[in-house]
Structure formats: structure tokens, C-alpha cells
């Protein structure tokens, strides 16, 4: 295992430092980077919130949270104590400019260090926080600001957020994070496409029948009900995660991989998405909401019960048929699907190739399956190429589907790091390749907003589906209407 490259010392300020994202993802990721020797001794992690703690209280809280969210084999006492000693806490009311003296004093102790401001808080606070950072002289040329999705709730609000943050920080200092882009399997998609000569000539409408991007979650909304009521599956998942994966599948080869070339090519894909007319929205989108059902054999309530709103029409499921209007992808449908309380937890990209033009083996009609490349993101990261082979034995040729498997853990003999580990270190390095640029975010919203407007005009309620199933039957109809079927992947 190669040693991790140490990043420059920095002050890592987490607004919302006591919140769910911070304790579940950000602090464990920083701990693991510390464990691998990637954080220099001078690096500090500063929690900022209105929780009313002091530094000792914050360290005690994080100690308990690390025990919950870091596996026992990775939690050693020496690293834990070293990491906890990096932690400081300041009480900040992000929207009150008179309440920033504590943070100013804390950061003044380390003038000249790289400052990373991670906004793990409501998007409505992004603008006020950045404005107060400027008013208090805390944002300098070495600072970076990290924005969690969603960036706004529609195109106009996204532009407003980008304007407010852009009034303080240059675009090169703004890191709009999508943790799916930090997954090893997603990054490896670029390598698979562009570092292997056999695949790229087939990566077009001449050879590919269709593409599926599936993100299924077996859990319900849990404690995120308040947020989810204002977002729904379309804003929470499709506008960012699913469209970003679509971009990586469909983008043209950049001249080389650097900070902007990949993002330039992703933007071109978003701009080439076929506009959604009201008729397209009606025919090519399905919204669903989970009702009561069984999850792992246990009875669970429906979404309306989870959020205590019997009138809620928020979608927890969406399926969309999208098309890209360019030479490479003309006529190739992209089916995007995501939902909560599904029958499994599975995220995958499925590239299905066209069938052989002529069944040349006697008796093979209807027995040969199309080739498929399946990129698995969770629960296990890997890649599988489905092929057809001859079944061993005499008495003629019998065809049998087989697969070539790449399991990252088995192949590289180590688990893949969490996406946040990679992305947080890229922020410190100032490398924006795996982050969304302003024009990407706004292009995605421009396309998604057509669906939002179409839904509003049709006033069509989400289709109900029982918890623990694979979504509403309308989603099955959506793809079967084209003579295709959803790929149901590995369960967990």
C-alpha cells in the first residue's frame, strides 16, 4: 500500500460542525486521512455551530461519534487522541455578523494558513456565511469554500446562491461537492473508457443500445424528513448525483485530464440533453412515493407517516428517460432511476450493448444475452462485463452467459477509501476536477426545471409503491414500452 501524500497545513472550519453530515462523514474522513499520515501536525479542525459547546465538550462528542462511524479495526487510540487534539470549537450564529468574534480570534492565531470553510448547513445560509466571512476579513486568496448540495431548489435560487458566494470567492476557490464523484468506481469509469483502446471505439450509438443509472436505497427518509419535504428525489438525487454520472458516461474524451478539461466536457453533455416538453414530462418521467410495506421482513410506515404529513405529495422515487442530442449518442436512451425504501441498496451504471446482428449458432435464437458493462458503486465497488461463452461439453454448442469480474477489494487487496476522504484532500490541494463548476450546476437545473414545471402543470400526484419493492409499476412501463427492462443488481 503506497503512503498517502501529505497535504499542506490548513485550518478546516466546518459550519454545522455538530450536525449529521459532519459527525457521520466529514470528521470520520478527516480522522482516516490523519491515520494514513496525510494531515501535517499543524492542521486544525474547527467546529462552528450554535450548539453551545466548548472545545472539551466538542472533543468528547466527536470521540463518541468516531466510535459509531469508524470501523473498530481503523480506530486506534494513538490516532484518535492525535486527531481529537486537532479539534477546536467556536460558537457562531452564521447569520449574525455580531457573533463572529470567537471565530475571528481562533483563526487569527494562524495567519497565512490555508483556510477551508466547509458549509455543512442549510443552503439558505451559504450566502450569509460567505458575506460574514468577508465582513470579518476571514476570506483571503488562500481560502476555499465547500458547498454541499443542493445548490438552490431551482434555477433562479441556484443563481442567487452562486451570485452570493461568488461575490466573496473567486470561482477557482469554490468547491461544489458531489460525493458520488469521489467514489473509486466512478473515477475508474474515466480510466476504463480512456485508457483502454478496445472500449472507446464501441462507446457510441452504433454499438450501445441504452444506458441505465440506478441508485436504490432500502432506507426511508429517517431524520431527514424536514429537508426531504422541501427537496424530494428530483432535487436530492437526480439534479446532481445521477446527472453527474450521466456526464461521465457520455462525455467526449478530453485532450488531457486537468482541472478544467473534464468539467468542460461534462458541461457539453448537460447542454446537449434533449429539452423536456410537457408531453415528454408526461411520457418520460415517473414520480413515486413509498407507502407502508415490508423492509427486511419488518413492517415499516409509509413516507407520509414518516414525515407526519398525510397530505404530502413529495416524491421519494423518480424514473426518467433522457436523451442526448449529439452525434455520439443520437437515438440512445439514458434511463435514470432512484428511490427510497426500495427492495435493495444498490448503485450502478449499466451500459447495455446491442445484440449480435445475426444469431449464427444453431439453436441460439433467443438464448444469447446482449453484452453489458456494469459499474457497481455500492454496496460493493467493482466492474462486471457480461459476455456469452460456450458451455463446456460435447453434443453441440450451448451458449451460456458469463461475466468477467473486477472487485476492487479483491484485486487491490485493500478497501476503497470513502469518497469524502479523497474529495476533502483535493479541496486542500486546490484541485477542482471532481467538483461541479457554476455553469454545470446551472445547466443541470435548467434541464431539471423543465420536469418540475411539467409536474406542476399536470398536477399529477406521485404513484404510490409499497416499501420494500422496486418502485411504482409506471416505472416498469416506462422502460418496457421501449422493449427493455430494468437491470436489478446486487442486493445488500
Secondary structure topology:
Blueprint: E1 10-15, H1 20-35, E2 44-49, H2 55-69, H3 77-86, E3 87-91, H4 101-108, E4 114-119, H5 126-135, E5 144-147, H6 155-166, E6 174-176, H7 184-194, E7 208-216, H8 225-250, H9 261-272, H10 278-284, E8 285-291, E9 293-295, E10 298-300, H11 303-306, E11 317-323, E12 333-339, E13 346-353, E14 372-378, E15 382-390, E16 399-407, H12 408-412, H13 419-429, H14 438-458, E17 463-466, H15 473-480
Helix pairs in contact: 1-2, 1-3, 1-13, 5-6, 6-14, 8-9, 8-14, 9-14, 10-14
Give structural notes:
Residues 13-188 form the Glucose-6-phosphate dehydrogenase NAD-binding domain. Pathway: Carbohydrate degradation; pentose phosphate pathway; D-ribulose 5-phosphate from D-glucose 6-phosphate (oxidative stage): step 1/3. With 492 residues, the protein is α/β, with parallel strands linked by helices. It is 36% helix and 21% strand. The chain contains 15 helices and 17 strands. The strands form 3 sheets. A 9-stranded mixed sheet has the order 16-15-14-13-7-12-11-8-17, with helices on both faces. A 6-stranded parallel sheet has the order 3-2-1-4-5-6. It has a two-stranded antiparallel ribbon with strand order 9-10. A hairpin with a 2-residue loop joins strand 9 (293-295) and strand 10. The longest helix has 26 residues, at 225-250. It is globular and about 80 Å long. It starts with 9 loop residues before the first strand and ends in a 12-residue tail after the last helix. The model has no long low-confidence stretch (mean pLDDT 90).
